[in-house]
Amino acid sequence: MNEKTVFGRIIDGEIPAEIVYRDESVTAFRDISPLAPTHVLIVPNRLIPDMTRATADDEPVLGRLLLAAARIAEEEGLADDGYRLIVNCGRHGGQEVPHLHLHLLGGRPLGPMLAD
Ligand code: AMP
What we know:
This protein is α+β, with helices and mostly antiparallel strands. It is built from 3 helices and 5 strands.
């Protein structure tokens, strides 16, 4: 049985977050420890723990995550200069919260894709 994660609690309004977008499938809110001037997390409202456990049933919501990210990037003024979308998965991917999420990062040059 999957426990509700910190993101599940944000989606359910149990803990506060600065929500920037919400629809029936996804919620987006600002990262609590931003790594760039804009750092927004876009998450499915229904728990998918990570990409490994996503199934064909999740295909619509996965598309919605990407399109929501692009819409938010435009609203944040990032579309012209560009931005980065990241999905961490599992231990080697550095995933800390086991509720699938897309990182939207921008507002400055983001450097090489990997730190090392
Ligand atoms: P990941 O390492 O890909 O699992 O990313 C988890 C992200 O969630 C990190 O960037 C954290 O700063 C962020 N985070 C953790 N708790 C919260 C919270 N309560 N509100 C907003 N962002 C959070």
